[in-house]
Structures are given as structure tokens and as C-alpha cells.
Amino acid sequence: MRRKIVVGNWKMNKTVAESTELATAVIAALGDGCSGCEAGIAPTYPALDAVGRALDGSGIALVAQNCHYEDDGAYTGEVSTGMLKAVGCTYVIIGHSERRQYFGETDETVNLRIKKVLASGMKVILCVGETLAEREEGVTGTVVSRQVTGGLKGVADITDLVIAYEPVWAIGTGKTASSDQAQEVHRLIRDTVKGMYGTEVSEAVRIQYGGSVKASNAEELFAMPDIDGGLIGGASLNAADFAAIVKAGC
Ligand code: PGA
Q: In which compartments does the protein localize (predicted)?
């Protein structure tokens, strides 16, 4: 039985003070929480340390939104895995569609980052997903399996890796993939993993859905056989909504 995982991706939102306040509100909203669902929060880099302190002892994981694949050096604007680990991150999101779309990330650079995160002892959330044009062209399967195989090229062990299927047309648009549409792609991703790593690994890997997940649709999505939780953008900026989504995964 795969344990569900729900992560709030705060993207470029909230100051350090606002982030700390929101993290504290999430803990309060979760109350006793639920052991059935793993939860995580990905604030901005400047807020990681403060949010990590606020989350201490709550059981909620501290997650980074990205990282670089070098250890250190002349890479202005970048942050290394060592730095993220030192502030208490346990997961790093890699290959979010906004990184691919606006910051030129490719399957190759995603692959380098994944290797670096896993080697550092942190876990990875690998994001994949097709654009609206790709869906309309009928190439969703090709695109998503290329992103999975390209991202995981040469990665021997994916025990510490979660995949997030996020159709680009559903991110921040209010358009959620229907639970059947999402399930179809999740199955395809699991089959791609099966082709690479075998049945046991493919049945164990967790695949989150992301793209306009709300408290009102989380339960239906999470009930699908191959959907193992969610990566939540907009709705994670409200403590009560995010807590309700985590509870839908319990
Ligand atoms: P959204 O974002 O929930 O605001 O659609 C999801 C994501 O990009 O992770």
C-alpha cells in the first residue's frame, strides 16, 4: 500500500514573516494530522530556514522548489543541495513546468539535478506533464514518458523519488484534469517506470497529481488507483484548504 503524499508548492509567494505565519497556521489546521498521508511544504529559498524551524516536530517535511547540480562555485543565483540539506530540507522539487518553461530546464539538466539530490541523501519530486498543444496533438503519452525516461536516465535506484504528473494546461488555470484523464496518464507513467525498473519498483513508486487541486476535488482524484497524493500550488497558500487536501489523502 503506497502512503499518499501531499506537498504545498508556495512558488514565489510570501515573505519570510508571512511564510512562518502560514506554516504555523497549517500545523494548527492539521490538528492531530493524519498518519496516513505524508505532508510537505515548499517555501521560497529565503524562508526555508524560518519555515523549517516552525515545522520542527510537526512531521511536515521541508521541501525546496529547485536546486543546482554543482556543489558550489560561480553560479550566481543558484543554490546547492548541501545548502538545502543544511537548513533541513528532505525533498527537492525538480523539473517543475515553470522551471522548464521560463528557465530553460531540459530533461538533461533535470537528470543532473535528480542525481545530485539523490546523492545528497535528500528525496526528489520529479515533475512531468504535457502542454495544452501537446495534449491536443495527441502526444501526451510520448511527452510524459520521454520526460520520465530522460529525467531518470542512469538513475539506478528510485526508492527516494516521487513523480508528480502536472498537465501544464491545468496549473494555476482552475482547469483540473478529470480524475479519469489523470488516472490514464498516471497508469502510463507507472508502465514507463515498469519498463525501466520492473514491476515491484513501479508498484511502489508514488505518483502525485498536480494542477488546480482544491479541497473540493482532492478526494475524487486521490481515490483513483494510481494517484498517490498531490502537488498543490494556489490552494496551498490557504492553511485550511491545504489541511483539507492533506486530510483527503489520509
Ligand atoms: P496549482 O499549481 O495548484 O496552482 O495549479 C500546481 C503546481 O504547479 O504545482
A: Cytoplasm
User: Is the CB of residue 231 below 6 angstroms from any atom belonging to ligand 1?
Assistant: yes
CATH number at residue 146: 3.20.20.70
- CA gap 178, 186 in Å, rounded: 12
How many domains does the chain fold into? Answer: 1
From 68, 96, 105, 130, the catalytic residue: 96
Q: Are residues 168 and 130 in contact, defined by beta-carbon separation less than 8 angstroms?
A: yes
**How far are the Cα atoms of 31, 87, 231 from residue 163, in angstroms, in the given order?**
28, 23, 10
**What are the residues whose beta carbons fall under 8 Å from the beta carbon of 227, sequence distance 6 or more?**
179, 182, 183, 186, 207, 208, 209, 221
CB of 244 within 8 A of CB of 215? Answer: yes
Give me the percent of the chain exceeding a pLDDT of 90: 94
User: Domain residues for 199?
Assistant: 4-248
Give dist(CA 130, CA 143) in Å, integer: 6
The model's pTM is 0.97
Residue 234 Cα, ligand 1 centroid: separation in angstroms?
6
Grid coordinates in use for 214?
A: 482544491
186 is catalytic: no
pLDDT digits (tens, 9 = 90+) for 72-98: 999 999 999 999 999 999 999 999 999
